[in-house]
FMN-binding negative transcriptional regulator
Amino acid sequence: MYTPKYFAETRAEALHGLMRDYPFATVVAGAADGAVANHFPLELVGDALHGHVARGNELAQLDGAEVLVIFQGPQGYVSPNWYPTKAETHREVPTWNYAVVHVRGRLKVVEDAAWLRALLQRLTDRHEATEPQPWRVNDAPDDHVEKMLHAIVGIEIAIEHVEGKFKLSQNHPERNRLGVIAGLRRRDGDGDAELASLMALQEKPKQEESPT
């Protein structure tokens, strides 16, 4: 991934935070007919990613394969009109801000029913947490759950390398970055609030480091 140094994100807490907040990932692997890409949620567990796919998925046949996992965080168009410097020099152009994490690792196919059931319980507990009456795996009949477990396989990816790119206007002066945050909040389109919040979070350490 092309990553100029001012966009490189290396803090483990920031990388892991994006992976947890945006768990729906793209998994790219090499197969006999070329590269394949699949999309499904992954859970960060220690130094590994856990998930599951249908038994008929190509990944179920790629035990031991090297894979690239892409986590896509908030993203959005940035208007040059949001930069205060644009009014002064007019030497600004549109761009796109975004945050992504790439994980490289080795895939392991898991057939263990107990492992799969525990994974499904964790995933549903997490994503049902905001529901008034959260659904639980045990709410479904046992025979139906067993049938579903036979139809899937677990995916465990041992993490070997993590790379983050948070393109959040770091190549601009502070007043332009604050202008982008204000512009995103004013536009308030799909994902704009999340992108503005991430940019504001990046600004906070700089403000805390400034002399009083």
